[in-house]
């Protein structure tokens, strides 16, 4: 299995809702990432987990809350989002010593209404 | 400050032609330079990558040229095909601390039949 699987593929949520994005990989990768990508822009790093511990938080607002329950799963909990948070949310994973295995999922298209 | 500058923003090439995308960087700590290909609604996928100990790397129709002294690298797509139409991102990072890729701004390539 060489894929990073993200669910759901599309999500529409109101500004008062709570929702979660899910990411799963079975490649044995020990680093997992959340990125945000706006239209016609490059991905922007949000969080990095290394060996299930949060190692990088790129000053992301607290309305985004990451969680890494185990080495294969990564969640992003969403609460009280704003319309400007609408974007493609990408998960990625890698071994921590080999950048060539850095693999992105297909993303969750999030719309905040 | 943008760590990696990419040009052009968009590119139109006839089928069979050569597509050339350029990137430049300033940080001399960067020593891993991947190129990612992204189709609409999909996550970026690693296309080809280079390390600064070589000046060129070729994989099929895709070639990276690297100029360490000028701190520039470029992607050449030979015999461009309509299926190559996508957005291409260059990136850079230190090889052994690649948790954070610095992405270029992206180039939207359109290969006309």
Structure description:
The complex is a heterodimer of chains A (113) and B (113). Chain A has 113 residues and is an all-beta fold. Chain A is built from no helices and 11 strands. Helices cover 0% and strands 62% of the residues of chain A. In chain A, the strands form 2 sheets. In chain A, strands 2, 4, 5, 6, 9, 10 and 11 form a 7-stranded mixed sheet that branches. Chain B has 113 residues and is mainly beta. Chain B has no helices and 11 strands. Chain B is globular and about 40 Å long. In chain B, 33% of the residues are buried. Classes of the chains: A mainly beta (113), B mainly beta (113). At the A-B interface, strand 5, strand 9 and strand 10 of A face strand 5 of B.
Secondary-structure map with pairings?
The complex is a heterodimer of chains A (113) and B (113).
Chain A: E1 4-7, E2 10-13, E3 18-25, E4 31-37, E5 44-50, E6 53-57, E7 64-70, E8 73-79, E9 87-95, E10 98-104, E11 108-112
Chain B: E1 4-7, E2 10-14, E3 19-25, E4 33-38, E5 45-50, E6 56-59, E7 62-67, E8 72-77, E9 86-92, E10 102-103, E11 107-112
Parallel strand pairs in B: 2-11
Antiparallel strand pairs in B: 1-3, 3-8, 4-5, 4-9, 6-7, 7-8, 9-10, 9-11
Q: How do you describe this structure in short?
A:
The complex is a heterodimer of chains A (about 110) and B (about 110). By secondary structure, chain A is mostly beta strands.
């Amino acid at each position: 299995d060489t894929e990073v699987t993200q669910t759901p593929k599309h999500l529409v949520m109101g500004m008062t809702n709570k929702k979660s994005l899910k990411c799963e990989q079975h490649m044995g990768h020990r680093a997992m990432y959340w990125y945000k990508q706006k239209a016609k822009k490059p991905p922007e790093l949000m969080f990095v987990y290394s060996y299930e511990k949060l190692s990088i938080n790129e000053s992301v607002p607290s309305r985004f809350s990451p969680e890494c329950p185990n080495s294969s799963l990564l969640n992003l909990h969403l609460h009280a989002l704003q319309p400007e948070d609408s974007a493609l949310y990408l998960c990625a994973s890698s071994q921590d010593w080999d950048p060539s295995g850095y693999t992105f999922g297909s993303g969750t298209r999030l719309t905040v209404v | 400050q943008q760590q990696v500058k990419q040009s052009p923003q968009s590119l139109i090439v006839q089928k069979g032609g050569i597509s050339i995308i350029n990137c430049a960087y300033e940080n001399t700590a960067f020593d891993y330079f991947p190129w990612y290909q992204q189709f609409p609604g999909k996550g970026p996928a690693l296309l080809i990558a280079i390390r600064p100990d070589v000046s060129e790397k070729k994989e099929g129709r895709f070639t990276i040229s690297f100029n360490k002294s000028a701190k520039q690298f470029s992607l050449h797509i030979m015999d461009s095909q309509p299926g190559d139409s996508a957005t291409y991102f260059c990136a850079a990072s230190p090889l052994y601390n690649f948790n954070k890729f610095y992405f270029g701004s992206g180039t939207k390539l359109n290969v006309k039949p």
